[in-house]
Amino acid sequence: MGRADERGAAGFPACGDPLFLLRGLLRVLDDRGGEGVRLDLLSVGEAMVELSASPDPALWHLGFAGDTLNTAWYLRRLLPAGRAVGYLTRIGTGGFSRRLRDFIADAGIVTDHISADPVREAGLYAIELSQGERSFTYWRSDSAARGLADDPAALAAAFAQADMIYLSGITAAILPPADRDNLAAALDAARARGARVVFDTNIRPRLWEDGATLRTQITRFAGLADLVLPSLDEETAHFGDGAPQDCIARYLAAGARQVVVKNGGGPVHYGGVDGAGRVDDLPRVRPVDTTAAGDSFNAGYLAARLGGAGIPDAIRAGHDIAAKVIAARGALVPV
Protein backbone atom coordinates (compact mmCIF):
# COMPACT_ATOMS: atom_id res chain seq x y z
CA MET A 1 0.00 0.00 0.00
CA GLY A 2 1.49 3.34 -1.03
CA ARG A 3 1.73 6.16 1.49
CA ALA A 4 -0.44 9.25 1.23
CA ASP A 5 2.40 11.33 2.76
CA GLU A 6 5.51 10.80 4.88
CA ARG A 7 3.31 9.75 7.81
CA GLY A 8 1.69 6.79 6.10
CA ALA A 9 -1.79 6.47 4.65
CA ALA A 10 -3.68 6.83 7.93
CA GLY A 11 -1.41 9.50 9.32
CA PHE A 12 1.17 7.51 11.27
CA PRO A 13 4.91 7.55 10.49
CA ALA A 14 6.30 4.81 8.33
CA CYS A 15 8.66 2.58 10.32
CA GLY A 16 11.97 4.34 10.85
CA ASP A 17 11.01 7.38 8.75
CA PRO A 18 13.88 9.80 9.55
CA LEU A 19 12.17 12.80 7.96
CA PHE A 20 9.15 12.46 10.24
CA LEU A 21 11.36 12.09 13.32
CA LEU A 22 13.51 15.07 12.33
CA ARG A 23 10.47 17.24 11.77
CA GLY A 24 9.18 16.22 15.19
CA LEU A 25 12.47 17.22 16.81
CA LEU A 26 12.49 20.59 15.05
CA ARG A 27 8.90 21.17 16.16
CA VAL A 28 9.88 20.41 19.75
CA LEU A 29 12.72 22.93 19.63
CA ASP A 30 10.52 25.54 18.02
CA ASP A 31 7.28 25.19 19.96
CA ARG A 32 7.86 23.97 23.51
CA GLY A 33 7.86 26.21 26.52
CA GLY A 34 5.28 28.90 25.84
CA GLU A 35 1.72 29.59 24.87
CA GLY A 36 0.38 27.76 21.86
CA VAL A 37 2.37 24.59 22.50
CA ARG A 38 2.31 22.36 19.44
CA LEU A 39 0.71 19.06 20.45
CA ASP A 40 1.47 15.64 19.08
CA LEU A 41 -1.93 14.59 20.40
CA LEU A 42 -4.86 16.46 21.92
CA SER A 43 -7.30 14.26 23.83
CA VAL A 44 -10.87 15.56 24.13
CA GLY A 45 -13.48 14.47 26.66
CA GLU A 46 -14.71 14.41 30.23
CA ALA A 47 -12.38 14.18 33.22
CA MET A 48 -14.13 13.25 36.45
CA VAL A 49 -13.56 13.22 40.19
CA GLU A 50 -13.34 9.65 41.52
CA LEU A 51 -14.25 8.56 45.03
CA SER A 52 -13.31 4.96 45.81
CA ALA A 53 -14.36 3.07 48.91
CA SER A 54 -11.86 1.64 51.36
CA PRO A 55 -12.20 -1.12 53.97
CA ASP A 56 -13.02 1.65 56.47
CA PRO A 57 -16.58 2.74 55.54
CA ALA A 58 -15.83 6.25 56.83
CA LEU A 59 -12.82 6.68 54.53
CA TRP A 60 -12.98 7.35 50.79
CA HIS A 61 -10.02 7.84 48.47
CA LEU A 62 -10.00 10.79 46.07
CA GLY A 63 -8.75 10.36 42.51
CA PHE A 64 -9.37 11.49 38.95
CA ALA A 65 -10.11 9.58 35.75
CA GLY A 66 -12.19 9.49 32.58
CA ASP A 67 -11.76 7.47 29.41
CA THR A 68 -9.98 10.05 27.27
CA LEU A 69 -8.00 11.33 30.25
CA ASN A 70 -6.86 7.78 30.98
CA THR A 71 -5.53 7.43 27.44
CA ALA A 72 -3.76 10.79 27.62
CA TRP A 73 -2.24 9.86 31.00
CA TYR A 74 -0.82 6.58 29.72
CA LEU A 75 0.29 8.08 26.43
CA ARG A 76 2.22 10.78 28.27
CA ARG A 77 4.12 8.05 30.10
CA LEU A 78 4.86 6.05 26.98
CA LEU A 79 6.01 8.82 24.65
CA PRO A 80 9.47 10.43 24.80
CA ALA A 81 9.76 13.62 26.82
CA GLY A 82 9.98 15.72 23.66
CA ARG A 83 6.46 14.78 22.61
CA ALA A 84 3.52 16.86 23.86
CA VAL A 85 0.14 15.48 24.93
CA GLY A 86 -2.69 17.89 25.72
CA TYR A 87 -6.18 17.60 27.14
CA LEU A 88 -9.31 19.54 26.21
CA THR A 89 -12.23 19.58 28.60
CA ARG A 90 -14.28 21.93 30.71
CA ILE A 91 -14.25 21.87 34.50
CA GLY A 92 -15.52 24.17 37.22
CA THR A 93 -13.90 26.68 39.54
CA GLY A 94 -14.31 24.84 42.86
CA GLY A 95 -11.76 22.96 44.88
CA PHE A 96 -12.25 19.58 43.21
CA SER A 97 -11.97 21.13 39.75
CA ARG A 98 -8.78 22.98 40.71
CA ARG A 99 -7.29 19.76 42.05
CA LEU A 100 -8.31 17.99 38.85
CA ARG A 101 -6.50 20.57 36.73
CA ASP A 102 -3.43 20.29 38.96
CA PHE A 103 -3.51 16.50 38.65
CA ILE A 104 -3.54 16.71 34.85
CA ALA A 105 -0.72 19.26 34.80
CA ASP A 106 1.36 17.25 37.28
CA ALA A 107 1.06 14.27 34.92
CA GLY A 108 2.89 16.29 32.28
CA ILE A 109 -0.21 16.88 30.15
CA VAL A 110 -0.66 20.32 28.60
CA THR A 111 -3.67 22.08 30.16
CA ASP A 112 -3.90 25.11 27.85
CA HIS A 113 -7.24 23.90 26.47
CA ILE A 114 -9.02 23.21 29.76
CA SER A 115 -11.69 25.87 30.26
CA ALA A 116 -13.60 26.75 33.43
CA ASP A 117 -17.37 26.95 33.78
CA PRO A 118 -18.47 29.63 36.28
CA VAL A 119 -21.53 27.63 37.37
CA ARG A 120 -21.11 23.90 36.75
CA GLU A 121 -18.47 21.63 38.25
CA ALA A 122 -16.61 18.51 37.14
CA GLY A 123 -18.60 15.29 37.19
CA LEU A 124 -18.12 12.78 39.98
CA TYR A 125 -18.41 9.03 40.35
CA ALA A 126 -18.06 6.66 43.29
CA ILE A 127 -16.72 3.11 43.26
CA GLU A 128 -17.96 0.66 45.86
CA LEU A 129 -16.69 -2.84 46.52
CA SER A 130 -18.92 -5.78 47.43
CA GLN A 131 -17.30 -9.21 47.72
CA GLY A 132 -14.56 -8.10 45.37
CA GLU A 133 -16.93 -6.75 42.71
CA ARG A 134 -16.89 -3.05 41.81
CA SER A 135 -20.06 -1.01 41.27
CA PHE A 136 -20.22 2.57 40.00
CA THR A 137 -22.53 5.48 40.79
CA TYR A 138 -22.29 8.60 38.61
CA TRP A 139 -23.18 12.27 39.13
CA ARG A 140 -22.50 13.77 35.72
CA SER A 141 -25.84 14.84 34.22
CA ASP A 142 -24.99 18.53 34.65
CA SER A 143 -21.20 18.39 34.58
CA ALA A 144 -19.15 21.27 33.22
CA ALA A 145 -17.71 18.97 30.54
CA ARG A 146 -21.06 18.99 28.77
CA GLY A 147 -20.15 22.48 27.57
CA LEU A 148 -16.69 21.63 26.22
CA ALA A 149 -17.78 22.14 22.60
CA ASP A 150 -20.10 25.13 22.92
CA ASP A 151 -17.52 27.59 21.54
CA PRO A 152 -16.65 26.79 17.90
CA ALA A 153 -13.85 29.37 17.81
CA ALA A 154 -12.15 27.89 20.88
CA LEU A 155 -12.44 24.39 19.42
CA ALA A 156 -10.91 25.53 16.14
CA ALA A 157 -8.04 27.26 17.94
CA ALA A 158 -7.32 24.19 20.06
CA PHE A 159 -7.47 21.76 17.15
CA ALA A 160 -5.16 24.02 15.12
CA GLN A 161 -2.44 23.28 17.71
CA ALA A 162 -2.71 19.48 17.36
CA ASP A 163 -1.24 17.03 14.89
CA MET A 164 -3.62 14.34 16.16
CA ILE A 165 -6.99 14.63 17.92
CA TYR A 166 -8.32 11.80 20.08
CA LEU A 167 -11.91 11.46 21.27
CA SER A 168 -14.43 8.81 22.21
CA GLY A 169 -18.08 7.95 21.99
CA ILE A 170 -18.44 9.28 25.52
CA THR A 171 -17.08 12.64 24.37
CA ALA A 172 -19.88 12.87 21.81
CA ALA A 173 -22.58 11.34 24.02
CA ILE A 174 -22.38 13.93 26.80
CA LEU A 175 -22.81 16.89 24.42
CA PRO A 176 -26.07 18.61 23.46
CA PRO A 177 -26.97 18.02 19.79
CA ALA A 178 -25.85 21.49 18.66
CA ASP A 179 -22.47 21.02 20.32
CA ARG A 180 -22.03 17.64 18.63
CA ASP A 181 -22.40 19.56 15.39
CA ASN A 182 -19.74 22.02 16.56
CA LEU A 183 -17.39 19.16 17.40
CA ALA A 184 -17.98 17.37 14.10
CA ALA A 185 -17.39 20.58 12.12
CA ALA A 186 -14.18 21.31 14.02
CA LEU A 187 -12.89 17.78 13.41
CA ASP A 188 -13.71 18.02 9.72
CA ALA A 189 -11.89 21.34 9.42
CA ALA A 190 -8.89 20.03 11.36
CA ARG A 191 -8.59 17.04 9.05
CA ALA A 192 -8.75 19.35 6.05
CA ARG A 193 -5.71 21.14 7.49
CA GLY A 194 -3.82 17.86 7.88
CA ALA A 195 -4.60 16.78 11.45
CA ARG A 196 -5.41 13.12 12.09
CA VAL A 197 -8.45 12.03 14.11
CA VAL A 198 -8.60 8.92 16.32
CA PHE A 199 -11.99 7.77 17.63
CA ASP A 200 -12.64 5.11 20.27
CA THR A 201 -16.34 4.27 19.93
CA ASN A 202 -16.60 3.47 23.68
CA ILE A 203 -20.33 2.89 23.62
CA ARG A 204 -22.24 3.77 26.82
CA PRO A 205 -25.98 3.53 26.02
CA ARG A 206 -27.12 5.32 29.19
CA LEU A 207 -25.43 8.51 28.00
CA TRP A 208 -27.35 8.65 24.72
CA GLU A 209 -30.90 9.86 24.13
CA ASP A 210 -31.90 6.54 22.53
CA GLY A 211 -30.49 3.65 20.52
CA ALA A 212 -31.09 5.27 17.15
CA THR A 213 -29.19 8.41 18.15
CA LEU A 214 -26.39 6.28 19.54
CA ARG A 215 -25.95 4.41 16.28
CA THR A 216 -26.28 7.49 14.09
CA GLN A 217 -23.79 9.58 16.04
CA ILE A 218 -21.23 6.84 16.60
CA THR A 219 -21.28 6.19 12.86
CA ARG A 220 -21.04 9.91 12.15
CA PHE A 221 -17.93 10.46 14.27
CA ALA A 222 -16.32 7.24 13.06
CA GLY A 223 -16.73 8.56 9.54
CA LEU A 224 -14.66 11.61 10.51
CA ALA A 225 -11.78 9.51 11.81
CA ASP A 226 -8.53 8.32 10.33
CA LEU A 227 -8.45 5.54 12.93
CA VAL A 228 -11.40 3.92 14.73
CA LEU A 229 -10.78 1.75 17.80
CA PRO A 230 -14.00 -0.16 18.59
CA SER A 231 -14.51 -3.04 21.02
CA LEU A 232 -16.15 -6.09 19.49
CA ASP A 233 -18.53 -6.88 22.35
CA GLU A 234 -20.00 -3.36 22.30
CA GLU A 235 -20.30 -3.33 18.52
CA THR A 236 -22.06 -6.69 18.52
CA ALA A 237 -24.50 -5.54 21.21
CA HIS A 238 -25.44 -2.26 19.55
CA PHE A 239 -24.82 -2.77 15.84
CA GLY A 240 -25.30 -6.53 15.52
CA ASP A 241 -21.86 -7.26 14.10
CA GLY A 242 -21.35 -11.00 13.89
CA ALA A 243 -17.58 -10.87 13.41
CA PRO A 244 -14.72 -8.35 13.58
CA GLN A 245 -14.70 -8.15 9.78
CA ASP A 246 -18.30 -6.90 9.86
CA CYS A 247 -17.32 -4.10 12.23
CA ILE A 248 -14.33 -3.15 10.08
CA ALA A 249 -16.38 -3.11 6.87
CA ARG A 250 -19.14 -1.02 8.46
CA TYR A 251 -16.80 1.70 9.70
CA LEU A 252 -14.77 1.78 6.50
CA ALA A 253 -18.03 2.24 4.59
CA ALA A 254 -18.87 5.14 6.93
CA GLY A 255 -15.64 6.90 5.95
CA ALA A 256 -13.01 5.73 8.43
CA ARG A 257 -9.58 5.04 6.96
CA GLN A 258 -8.34 2.37 9.37
CA VAL A 259 -10.10 0.23 11.97
CA VAL A 260 -8.55 -1.85 14.77
CA VAL A 261 -11.09 -4.01 16.60
CA LYS A 262 -10.27 -4.72 20.24
CA ASN A 263 -11.47 -8.12 21.37
CA GLY A 264 -10.80 -8.57 25.06
CA GLY A 265 -7.95 -11.06 25.20
CA GLY A 266 -8.83 -12.58 21.83
CA PRO A 267 -7.34 -12.01 18.38
CA VAL A 268 -7.31 -8.38 17.24
CA HIS A 269 -8.43 -7.74 13.66
CA TYR A 270 -7.64 -4.66 11.61
CA GLY A 271 -8.38 -3.34 8.15
CA GLY A 272 -8.17 -0.20 6.04
CA VAL A 273 -5.78 1.89 3.99
CA ASP A 274 -2.73 0.70 5.94
CA GLY A 275 -3.52 -2.97 5.43
CA ALA A 276 -5.63 -5.76 6.87
CA GLY A 277 -4.92 -8.75 9.07
CA ARG A 278 -5.17 -10.17 12.56
CA VAL A 279 -2.87 -10.62 15.52
CA ASP A 280 -3.34 -13.91 17.36
CA ASP A 281 -0.26 -14.29 19.55
CA LEU A 282 -1.53 -12.22 22.46
CA PRO A 283 -0.95 -13.74 25.92
CA ARG A 284 -4.07 -14.33 28.00
CA VAL A 285 -4.14 -12.48 31.30
CA ARG A 286 -6.35 -13.10 34.32
CA PRO A 287 -7.72 -9.64 35.16
CA VAL A 288 -7.84 -8.16 38.62
CA ASP A 289 -9.67 -5.02 37.47
CA THR A 290 -10.59 -4.29 33.85
CA THR A 291 -11.02 -0.54 34.39
CA ALA A 292 -9.20 1.41 31.63
CA ALA A 293 -8.25 -1.74 29.73
CA GLY A 294 -9.32 -0.27 26.40
CA ASP A 295 -8.05 3.21 27.25
CA SER A 296 -4.58 1.91 28.04
CA PHE A 297 -4.56 -0.34 24.95
CA ASN A 298 -5.25 2.73 22.84
CA ALA A 299 -2.35 4.58 24.46
CA GLY A 300 0.05 1.71 23.89
CA TYR A 301 -1.08 1.32 20.29
CA LEU A 302 -0.80 5.04 19.49
CA ALA A 303 2.59 5.40 21.19
CA ALA A 304 3.95 2.52 19.14
CA ARG A 305 2.52 3.85 15.87
CA LEU A 306 3.83 7.35 16.57
CA GLY A 307 7.21 5.75 17.17
CA GLY A 308 7.15 4.13 13.73
CA ALA A 309 5.86 0.62 14.54
CA GLY A 310 3.66 -1.26 12.11
CA ILE A 311 0.10 -2.18 13.02
CA PRO A 312 0.78 -5.74 14.31
CA ASP A 313 3.60 -4.59 16.59
CA ALA A 314 1.49 -1.65 17.77
CA ILE A 315 -1.35 -4.04 18.65
CA ARG A 316 1.08 -6.13 20.69
CA ALA A 317 2.33 -2.99 22.43
CA GLY A 318 -1.22 -1.97 23.26
CA HIS A 319 -1.98 -5.44 24.59
CA ASP A 320 1.16 -5.41 26.76
CA ILE A 321 0.17 -2.11 28.39
CA ALA A 322 -3.43 -3.20 28.92
CA ALA A 323 -2.22 -6.47 30.48
CA LYS A 324 -0.26 -4.51 33.08
CA VAL A 325 -3.20 -2.23 33.80
CA ILE A 326 -5.77 -4.97 34.36
CA ALA A 327 -3.36 -6.80 36.68
CA ALA A 328 -3.79 -3.99 39.25
CA ARG A 329 -6.71 -2.13 40.75
CA GLY A 330 -7.67 1.30 39.47
CA ALA A 331 -7.78 3.15 36.19
CA LEU A 332 -4.32 4.73 36.43
CA VAL A 333 -1.49 2.46 37.51
CA PRO A 334 2.29 2.47 36.96
CA VAL A 335 3.35 0.98 33.61
TrEMBL record:
Any one GO cellular component localisation term in the record: cytosol
InterPro entries, alphabetized: Carboh/pur_kinase_PfkB_CS, PfkB_Carbo_kinase, PfkB_dom, Ribokinase-like
One term of GO molecular function: 2-dehydro-3-deoxygluconokinase activity
Gene3D superfamilies, per database record: 3.40.1190.20
Domain Carbohydrate kinase PfkB intervals: 41-331
Keywords: Kinase, Transferase
Entries under CDD domains matching the protein: KdgK
Example GO biological process: DNA damage response
Signal peptide: none
PANTHER family on file: 2-DEHYDRO-3-DEOXYGLUCONOKINASE, HEXOKINASE FAMILY MEMBER
Family the entry assigns: Belongs to the carbohydrate kinase PfkB family.
Protein name per the record: Ribokinase
Organism encoding this protein: Paracoccus contaminans
